[in-house]
Structures are given as structure tokens and as C-alpha cells.
Design a protein that fits this description.
Helix 5 packs antiparallel against helix 6. Helix content is about 45%, strand content about 20%. By secondary structure, the chain is of the alpha+beta class. Strand 7 and strand 8 form a beta hairpin.
């Protein structure tokens, strides 16, 4: 079927272009959503008469989308879900879930604007595009975790599906506490299992151990002579 596009459609064309698409795509998506008209002689004349109005409306929508994009660009959303030890969710995170959380925080996003090819089914960190307008797109980060603490670990780049030993858990908690008190060098050293600069014992210059051994040997000789 040939249609006249009433707005820019990715991979199809710009407003006013006459393109050929599959009948099902036209009937189920383009025509009912007001994104295109059948390319008849009557509709071509109709488009010319409404072209100026369509362009003005498109600019208005684009301006609103730019405002929303500036607010959401780079935002991180943490979604808490139950999951197995391997990280597989007992359920999924859908476009509806993501749009709902963004709108709770003051965004204006519909589920159709969240570009997710398939629901998220495992804990982790995901880059999710938002198509806010045919000409405006931004990207947010979605972290799916079993708890807020686990979400913080994922944000730091940790693999939370690998079980840690008690010592590793204690070191991780100490590192998080150091970061909270603005000690990045100490936090890094704790994560790597090394002493921080403040905790390291000072090293004396030269070979300080030899005099100690000599003194011990001298004392033994004096006791023997006595």
C-alpha cells in the first residue's frame, strides 16, 4: 500500500513523502495512529492544504520532547525485583514498568516511547533509548537489582551473580563506607585488598633489621661468658 507520511517515520521517510509499506503495517499502525494517509489523489490535495498546520504542530511537539529529553538524559532508574542466585528474574521488567518509574519522578513518557526490543529478564545494568519524538531521542540507564544495596554494587560495575566470601563482603562494606566519607583512595585500596596510605606501616631507611640481629647475638655471647 502507498501512503503519505504525516510525520517523520524512522527508516521510512520524512513528512510528505509517499512510500510503499506492507498493508498490515499501514492498517494496524500508520493509518489508525494518524501517522499517514492513503496515497489517493484526494488525500494528496488534502495534505497540501494541511501541510503548514502539520509542520507547526510538529515543531510544538518537538519542543516539548526536547524539554523532556533534557530532564531525562543520563538519568539512572533502579528497579527492584526478586531473582534467583544466578540473576534470572522471577518475572520481567517491561516498557510499562520503566515508563511508570520515570513518570513517578516527574517525567512525561509513554510506554510506546521506551525502546525495548524484549522485556528485561535478568538483573544487571541496561542502556535504554527513549524515542520521545521522531526527531528527539535520549538514553537512560536502567539498573535491575534485588535490593538497593545490590543496585549500588551493579552501578559500581560489580558482578553480583558471583557469590562473595565473608571476607569479601566485609571488604566491600568497608569500601562503601569509605566512599561515603569521601575517601576514594582508601575505598580503592580496600576493594583491591591492599592497605591504604594511612594504614600502611612506615618503612625505615636502610637495612634496619641487621642491627637488631647483631644486638641479639651480642646479648647471647655476654650471657655465655657470665
Amino acid at each position: 500500500m502507498e501512503v503519505i507520511l504525516l510525520e517523520r517515520i524512522g527508516k521510512l521517510g520524512q513528512m510528505g513523502d509517499v512510500v510503499r509499506v506492507k498493508d498490515g503495517f499501514a492498517r494496524n499502525f500508520l493509518l489508525p495512529r494518524g501517522k499517514a494517509l492513503r496515497a489517493t489523489a484526494e488525500n494528496k490535495s488534502r495534505f497540501e492544504s494541511m501541510k503548514t498546520e502539520l509542520q507547526a504542530h510538529n515543531l510544538e511537539l518537538k519542543g516539548k520532547a526536547d524539554t523532556v529529553a533534557a530532564t531525562l538524559d543520563g538519568r539512572t532508574v533502579v528497579v527492584l525485583r526478586q531473582a534467583s542466585e544466578s540473576g534470572q528474574l522471577f518475572g520481567s521488567v517491561s516498557t510499562r514498568d520503566i515508563a511508570g518509574m520515570l513518570n513517578t519522578d516527574g517525567g512525561e513518557v509513554s510506554r510506546s516511547q521506551v525502546v525495548l526490543n524484549a522485556p528485561i529478564k535478568a538483573i544487571g545494568q541496561y542502556k535504554v533509548p527513549l524515542a520521545l519524538h521522531p526527531e528527539v531521542e535520549t538514553i537512560i540507564t536502567v539498573i535491575v537489582a534485588r535490593s538497593a544495596q545490590e543496585g549500588e554494587r551493579i552501578a559500581r560495575g560489580e558482578d553480583v551473580t558471583v557469590q562473595r566470601t565473608p571476607d569479601e563482603e566485609e571488604a566491600a562494606e568497608a569500601a562503601a563506607a569509605a566512599e561515603a566519607f569521601f575517601e576514594p583512595e582508601a575505598a580503592k585500596a580496600l576493594r583491591e585488598g591492599e592497605p591504604s596510605a594511612e594504614d600502611a606501616e612506615p618503612q625505615p631507611e636502610g637495612d634496619s633489621k641487621k642491627p637488631a640481629r647483631s644486638a641479639k647475638k651480642k646479648k647471647s655471647n655476654e650471657e655465655g661468658e657470665a
